[in-house]
Specification:
- The chain is α/β, with parallel strands linked by helices.
- The chain has 2 domains: 12-137 and 295-347, Periplasmic binding protein-like II (D-Maltodextrin-Binding Protein, domain 2, 3-Layer(aba) Sandwich); 140-292 and 357-416, D-Maltodextrin-Binding Protein, domain 2 (3-Layer(aba) Sandwich), CATH 3.40.190.10.
- It contains 19 helices and 11 strands.
- The protein has helices at residues 3-10, 38-47, 61-74, 89-94, 102-105, 117-121, 146-151, 168-180, 191-199, 219-233, 245-252, 265-273, 308-318, 321-331, 338-341, 344-347, 359-368, 380-396, 401-416; strands spanning 25-32, 51-58, 81-85, 133-134, 136-137, 140-145, 186-188, 256-262, 281-284, 297-300, 334-335.
- The strands form 3 sheets. Strands 2-1-3-10-4 form a 5-stranded mixed β-sheet, sandwiched between helices. A 4-stranded mixed β-sheet has the order 7-8-6-9. The chain has a two-stranded antiparallel ribbon with strand order 5-11.
- Helix 2 (38-47) links the parallel strand 1 and strand 2 (51-58).
Length: 417
Amino acid sequence: MTTAAAACLVTVACGGDAADANGKTQISISTFGEFGYEELYAEYERLHSDIDIVPHTTGQGGPYHQALFTKLGAGSGLDDVVAIEEAHLPEALDKSSRFHDLREVGPAEVSPGRWLDWKYQSAVDKEGRLIGYGTDTGPLAMCYRKDLFEKAGLPSEPDEVGELFATWDSYFDAGDTFVANSDGVAWFDSAAQIFNAMQNQLDVGYFDRQDRLTIESNAEIRRNWDTVTDAVNRGQSAGLVAFSNEWNSGFKQSAFATKTCPSWMLGVIEEQAGDELAGEWAVTSAFPGGPRNWGGSYLAVPTQSEHAEEAAAFAAWLTAPEQQIKAFKAAGAFPSQVEALESPELLSATNDYFGGAKIGELFAEQAKTIGEAQYKGPGDGKIQENALAPALQAVEQGASADEGWQQFVASAKQIAS
């Protein structure tokens, strides 16, 4: 392998030639993490003998999106199909003219009714252009350690914990009881993870629909800040940075007892907690404040692509209900398509690690009850990652709640400007 070819494999995208040595059209696609698409690429090639799929995969979503938007601004270097994670979709919508309108270049039979309404509408720009086909979703549930609950004198079966997780007030009250009886184990992993779940439940998020920053004007954001930082000061947080090495180890070391659980988090817990804790983790549909979505992605076709219609057809096929069920079975990517959410294959899915929980049925019901998606303005994902999380971490490390708030506001303003 040449140096240039090796470099190509670790970048977000290297673009595709018009045709390979066999005269086939090459369609390149860039993704991050695990989409469950590997076998689907080969299947698509079998079904379309004139197409070669050229995949490029990056491990971490942060570096992936940074490189994606750099290439988007440069006007070159992007693949024919690019994945965009929900948190970074607002930035893509802000640059929507650089993506094809999939209503124009995509297959005519692909209608909005394929997806849950909130999933479809999230990828529509202010001019009504559709820039992304929805892939997976992240309907929220709550995961918790049954054995640690029992030791602290709390109810532990999924059908018994509803009262504990009925509201955020009841959740944090239960946290006080747990901390008082848990011998040093924290109630939750990270203040930022809790705050993000609460933030996504607000009618208005970090931006209003005129893209004005609302952090200082929206009293609910400050109220959530005060609630979470009060819980931190009462010893409920393990103070771990999500997806850090310490956070990963925290699962195995039983550092915390509850975890906000979008559907994709189950695989993370199983991987990090290990076989010895199988059956000790449980999942329940009860979630404080009601279900919302956290995570999921879209497939877009940049205007840079020389094969827009072929790329859109490929993206449409990958996001069809049949393929979404296959991706769910391969990687746990929970579908966003109405037909897929009613599939017996999905609804019958269980998870032995979580005590045989009926995860297909549980998360399908959560997904169906999610209302209108919260509007996300440009920079929303960056505020979450680069302003909110460091500010809450500062509080977890000893800064006062007011000091952390001022850091949060200042960083958010800098990002929004």
